[in-house]
């Protein structure tokens, strides 16, 4: 099992790590017993994601997946952010080991959960 | 700085051991089985090596066979006994913390129709003797328990187990792969029937193992071929590695007491500093008698692979009980058997100190470890919920 330089870069220098107080959207996916929990906080203005933060309990690929996916949605519209799939996360990382693919799924799901939270609050 | 704290995984080859092997890689290349002058020279080297190892264990040279690894030794012993004694019974007992070399061999035998009972350990990772007694059945042919656990370092009560096995006329196999070179073990005195070990855990070469088989124990063939190693492990004799294993074993026991003391002091210092400087940690098997250099530490609310990789980026090598650093994505069965909750098993790191480690290295590790744990906890939603 080996990680790409991209994974190691995001793992060792995670982007957008932290929390946003009173976020417009918040999503949390995973549980401790399977070894991964991901949290996404969104600040949204005029349907544009103006700030995003994450916190992750998990392995290097979980941390790297969260980090890179926050980069992928920052500055994008809510609609564009919904188009981020686990496949795109894996591509952005230059690949993940086969046994770690679920980490990218977690990132996709966490973003979707945060956006759904935003949309449900808006209603 | 490069710091190797993974000595339970494998060790650095000792220079003297290396030198002892060189002639058998170069000019003394004869087949130890050949009758001519080339074979006589290597044949003698292998005989000497066998005698040296037998002397350390206080057994007869003909009771030692050479294999390719600890796992291979375990396989030959367990499968060999199962085959030879299946008419007497088909029940095998093992502990719940065995190395895959034993565990998966027993599971494989189970698929072949043998019955397997796993005996639990207590929270310190030590086999429950009463449970072992209760697991014995009329048709039990073999008990297999490791001497020291590779993850926790916990020493198993092999003397007591041997007594029980002998009394019940059950064969007793000991996987001494992790303890050999660290703890003295006299299989004959204790009443062990077969005992597996490998050179690379005590500063010898990788790719060679040994198996003690008490005279009188029958072993069915697992590998078939020529006549080498009493026909139990046929294949051309690996003279250089065998010579290396004998040199290494001899050397390691020369100043064992002194080294054990030095290493356990380093380990105790390391653990006391961890407890002082990092909140919410658990030191596993702390209450048990442990191997001197092994320290298994659970850092709550973060994940082990992340700790391992951050340490590695700082030049420090350790191993993890986390599912995420294994290809199977299963949390360590050893930690789970000890009752460590699965989410904490994920956050467990094994530091294993060896003869080349220094206090300076431990201090460097501690400083980096404190920083890394803080960094990862800051990132962890679980830490935020549980830190107080």
Structure description:
The complex is a heterodimer of chains A (123) and B (388). Chain A has 5 helices and 3 strands. By secondary structure, chain A is an alpha+beta fold. Chain A has a 3-stranded antiparallel sheet with strand order 1-2-3. In chain A, a hairpin with a 4-residue loop joins strand 1 and strand 2. In chain B, 42% of the residues lie in helices and 15% in strands. The longest helix of chain B has 22 residues. In chain B, the strands form 3 sheets. A 7-stranded mixed sheet of chain B has the order 2-8-7-6-5-3-4, with helices on both faces. Chain B has a 4-stranded antiparallel sheet with strand order 9-10-13-12, covered by helices on one side. In chain B, strands 1-11 form a two-stranded parallel ribbon. With 388 residues, chain B is α/β, with parallel strands linked by helices. The interface between A and B is medium-sized, with 25 and 26 residues.
List keywords for this structure.
heterodimer, A: 123 residues, alpha+beta, three-stranded antiparallel β-sheet, B: 388 residues, alpha/beta, seven-stranded mixed β-sheet
Mean pLDDT of chain B: 96
What series of H and E elements makes up the topology of chain A? HEEEHHHH
> Radius of gyration of chain B, Cα only, in angstroms?
22 Å
Average pLDDT of chain A works out at 94
Shape estimate of chain B:
globular
Tally of DSSP β-strands of chain A: 3
What low-confidence regions of chain B span 5 or more consecutive residues with pLDDT below 50? Answer: none
> Spans of chain A of 5+ residues with little confidence (pLDDT < 50)?
none
Structural class of chain B: alpha/beta
Strand residue percentage of chain A:
15-25%
Main pleated sheet of chain A = 3 strands, antiparallel
Structural class of chain A: alpha+beta
Helix content estimate of chain A: 40-55%
Beta-strand proportion of chain B = 5-15%
Percent helix range of chain B? 40-55%
Spatially, the strands of the biggest sheet of chain B line up as 2-8-7-6-5-3-4
């Amino acid at each position: 099992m080996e990680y790409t330089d991209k994974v190691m870069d995001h793992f060792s220098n995670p982007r957008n790590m932290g929390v946003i107080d009173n976020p417009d959207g918040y999503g949390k996916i995973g549980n401790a017993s399977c070894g991964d929990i991901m949290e996404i906080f969104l600040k949204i203005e005029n349907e544009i994601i103006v700030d995003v933060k994450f916190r992750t309990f998990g392995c290097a690929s979980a941390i790297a997946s969260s980090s890179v996916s926050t980069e992928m949605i920052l500055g994008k519209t809510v609609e564009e952010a919904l188009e981020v799939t686990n496949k795109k996360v894996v591509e952005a990382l230059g690949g993940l080991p086969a046994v770690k693919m679920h980490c990218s799924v977690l990132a996709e799901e966490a973003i979707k959960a945060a956006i759904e939270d935003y949309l449900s609050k808006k209603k | 700085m490069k710091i190797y704290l993974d000595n339970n995984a494998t060790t650095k080859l000792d220079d003297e051991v290396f030198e002892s092997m060189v002639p058998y890689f170069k000019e003394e290349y004869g087949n130890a089985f050949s009758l001519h002058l080339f074979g006589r020279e290597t044949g003698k080297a292998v005989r000497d090596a066998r005698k040296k190892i037998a002397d350390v264990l206080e057994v007869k040279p003909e009771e030692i066979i050479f294999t390719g690894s600890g796992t291979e030794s375990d396989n030959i012993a367990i499968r060999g006994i199962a085959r030879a004694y299946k008419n007497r019974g088909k029940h095998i007992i093992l502990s719940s913390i065995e190395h895959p070399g034993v565990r998966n061999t027993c599971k494989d035998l189970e698929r072949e129709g043998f019955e397997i009972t796993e005996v639990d350990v207590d929270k310190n990772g030590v086999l429950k003797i009463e449970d072992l007694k209760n697991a014995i059945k009329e048709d039990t042919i073999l008990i297999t328990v490791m001497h020291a656990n590779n993850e926790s370092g916990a020493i198993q009560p092999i003397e007591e187990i041997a007594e029980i096995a002998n009394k019940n006329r059950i064969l007793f196999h000991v996987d001494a792969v992790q303890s050999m070179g660290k703890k003295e073990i006299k299989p004959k005195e204790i009443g062990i029937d077969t005992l597996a070990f490998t050179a690379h855990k005590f500063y010898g070469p990788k790719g060679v193992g040994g198996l003690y088989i008490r005279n009188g124990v029958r072993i069915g063939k697992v590998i078939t071929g020529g006549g080498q190693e009493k026909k139990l492990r046929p294949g051309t004799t690996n003279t250089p590695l065998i010579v290396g294993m004998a040199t290494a074993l001899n050397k390691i026991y020369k100043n064992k007491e002194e080294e054990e003391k030095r290493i356990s002091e380093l380990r105790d210092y390391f653990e006391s500093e961890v407890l002082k400087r990092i909140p919410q940690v658990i030191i596993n098997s702390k209450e048990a008698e442990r191997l001197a250099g092994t320290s298994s530490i659970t850092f709550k609310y973060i994940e082990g692979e992340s700790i391992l990789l951050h340490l590695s980026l700082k030049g420090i090598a350790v191993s993890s009980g986390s599912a995420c650093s294994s290809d199977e994505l299963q949390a360590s069965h050893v930690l789970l058997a000890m009752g460590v909750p699965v989410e904490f098993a994920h956050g467990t790191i094994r530091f294993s100190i060896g003869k080349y480690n220094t206090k300076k290295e431990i201090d460097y590790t501690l400083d980096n470890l404190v920083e890394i744990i803080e960094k990862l906890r800051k990132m962890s939603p679980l830490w935020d919920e549980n830190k107080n």
